[in-house]
Amino acid sequence: MKKYTIGALLFSMLVNFNAQSLQSPDGKFEMNFQLKQGIPYYNLKYNGNIVVEDSKLGLRLFKDTSVKFASEIAKPEDAKFDLNNGFTKADEKRDSKNEIWQPVLGEKKNYINQYNELSVTLHQDTTDRNIVVKFRLFNDGLGFRYEFPQQKNLNYFVIREEDSEIDFPTDMKAWWIVADYDSQEYQPQTTKISEIPGRWDQAFDKHSSQTLIKNAVQSPLMLKKEGKDPLYVNVGEAAVLNYPASHLEVDPVNFKFKTHLTPDRQGAKGYIQTSSVSPWRTIIVSPKAEEVLASKMMFNLNEPTKYTDTSYIHPTKYMGVWWEMIIGKSQWAYSTANNIHIGETDFSKLTPNGKHAANNTKVKEYIDFAAANGFGGLLIEGWNIGWEDWIGHNKEFVFDFITPYPDFDIKMLNEYAHSKGIKLVMHHETSASATNYERWADKAFKLMNDYGYDAVKTGYVGDMVPRGEHHYSQWTINHYYRIAEKANEYKIMVNSHESVRPGGESRTYPNWISAEAARGTEHEAFQGNNPDHQTILPFTRWMGGSMDYTPGIFQTKLDYYFPGDKRFVKTTLVKQLALYVVMYMPLQMAADLPENYQKHMDAFQFIKDVAADWDDTKILSAEPGDYIITARKAKGTENWFVGGITDENKREYTVDFSFLDKGKKYEATIYEDGKDADYINNPQSYNIYKKQITGKSKINFKMARSGGFAISIKPL
């Protein structure tokens, strides 16, 4: 616990009479805003107890709208241009809302958006400028942002840094990943706040594009105040539009975090033209981990969509010609060449490498299996020319997104897929050349329309082009939304990889239905994912939107393909099934090879049955880093699915089915770890049985190390 001087406490009491207070609709939260010697501060209480101590607000600006380079050093006299001091309160307005809205795709049919709002207009006397700090207090926490009205002395400005702080009173447990301007694909770490700098240097591995921020972490950040009265806190951001994504600088002594924005190559953090707003900073708080997982605050802080037609947006269960390339069995590239010129190289004259996966014969085999098992889509990576030298060269013109390799007959394969009831899922790897993708987007999406594709997986592997931009800088954030809007013009859904993490923006851009933006299943074939990884991601990455995690790996040991290979997927087979319920994925992949599913068709049945869009979700029990048990009701049906996962520890859990309708009988198909199951020694051991249940039923499950259970429930 921090110590305070008597003088500091007296000063706090003297300024409190100037504070503006705001309460949540249920009265459990109280937010207080005040100016101390012209500097804005806020704090947050839950049930009368301090959750966030007095924390500064404000932004530092460059002295004018021209930025020379990142080496430009702030001088003391530049402070007069900042928007973080010298304020007086000019006005305050209050508002409230209580509405129910329906997401196009979501974890529930209805989302409740209820809050009380306080907007404080601050006037900076020395510059005659106004800004507004807006607070929204929900029953699950606080959101706040800056608003910049158009005015005489504030039309254009450039942000040097945003200095929003979140100052906690105690040294809480934290689940975090290292901050990086270009990647979020890191193993989560679990330490105290004070221990983050000591762990930081060991908390990352190498990625294709990487710009690390020393002793900083990424959001959403999950925290826990331990003890007899535990409290869970989630720190994030929502509605990141025309603004860079942020990170959190760590003050390990004072248990404080400060916003750190992603810059461009000149070191500028944001080019602003008024009127404009910042993203929302979010603080979700609950004594129960389950309630944090259930929060929809980030979505509520985004605006409703302006799309006039969302009828083309639908959940999709798909397979893919993908995993065999990830593990090294096949390749994306067609030829042995290593120097390609799009539009000039004659691929028919190149020597095939013999391992190209996206060929007519193999794709038809995948189509046959996907169609026979009720899937709606098939992703095919490596279908288009350019993969021979696609990465590591900072090429701008790296793909054209319309020209197939000689062994991929796009017309024939689409006709064959459609005859089987399958839609192919387009793949647009950009190699992070965003400028090139924007040039080709219309032609690429028109091609998709011509052949009946309605979903695209985009990728941004490598250093960003324009060169010097980052994956999370303002320009690139705007690029992602330009692509989403362009895709909407062609009635196309977007699943982005290596993009920015979502902050509830799918409410506004519902065709951007999923993203990667974290360490997914593919890393099981690289450096690996720890067994607790999937028990942390829903508390961090998933708080603002769906992830394309690509689960469903049944053959977890890679020495099956390559004798002596030590790589393996660190879960049991049944845990892979449970992930389809625990992890919300409206674009839902069965990622393994057909041959592996054919050996376990009884277990594969759960993947065939499980829904991808939901009318209701109930978090039955959860603890970040340990376990999650989730029940979901399939959209438009009376079918329920339950999934439970654990970390590296064996665990028991008893499912109470009281969430089912009273008086009804159901048939439960139960998939559980076998008695001898173990994610290292016996991952494919499982047991399947059926049982009649009601809302009064209870079933005990024993989960193996990194194991789980899955249940499919249908009314009788």
Structure description:
The protein is of the alpha+beta class and 716 residues long. The chain contains 13 helices and 37 strands. The protein folds into three domains: 20-66 and 74-301, Beta-galactosidase, Chain A, domain 5 (Distorted Sandwich); 304-517, Aldolase class I (TIM Barrel, Alpha-Beta Barrel); 540-715, Alpha-Beta Barrel (TIM Barrel). Strand 31 (627-634) and strand 32 (640-646) form a beta hairpin. The longest helix is centred in the middle third of the chain and has 18 residues, at 434-451. The model is unreliable at 3-17 (pLDDT under 50).
Given helix and strand content, the structural type is: alpha+beta
Number of helices: 13
The major sheet is characterized as: 10 strands, antiparallel
Number of strand segments: 37
Mean pLDDT: 96
The value of Rg in angstroms is 26 Å
Q: What percentage of residues falls in helices of 4 or more residues?
A: 10-25%
Supply the number of structural domains. 3
State the shape: globular
Cofactor: Ca(2+)
Keywords: Calcium, Hydrolase, Signal
GO molecular function, one term: carbohydrate binding
InterPro entries: Aldolase_TIM, GH, GH-type_carb-bd, GH97_C, GH97_catalytic, GH97_N, Glycosyl_hydrolase_97
